[in-house]
Amino acid sequence: MTHDIWITVWVLGFASLAIRLFGFLLAQRLPQTGAWARGMEALPGCLIVALVALMILNSGQQEWIAGAVVLLIAAKTRNLPLSMAIGVAVVAFMRATLP
Q1: How far does CA 92 lie from the centroid of its chain?
Q2: Which end of the chain is more exposed for a tag (fewer CB within 10 A), N or C?
Q3: Nearest CA-CA partner of 52 in 31, 68, 34, 75
Q4: How far apart are CA 97 and CA 99, in angstroms?
Q5: CA distance 63 to 94
């Protein structure tokens, strides 16, 4: 391996460590109670919903049907892994059987 590759590996490794350390240190300073804490707890779910909604809007009929099925399953069971698995299975089934 050349010298440039090793420099790249070390710089990227250091950058990865720095990002993780900065995130850890920043997380210690965030409020643990109150509105900010509740907002930060809800943020991952909001991001997932935004990404999935964008993908569904840009997809076809099969994905819309799978999205509706996932929404119904999630509302009824409140079980995210089950909802995701059923959604993937619905899309796979429809892609395999429908033209």
Answers
A1: 20
A2: C
A3: 68
A4: 7
A5: 9
Helices of type H across 30-79: 35-57, 61-77
Matching residue, tokens 């899309």:
91
Tell me the backbone φ, ψ of residue 32, rounded to 5 degrees. Answer: -95, -15
- Pick from 41, 94, 40, 45: nearest CA to 65: 94
0.70 exceeded by pTM: no
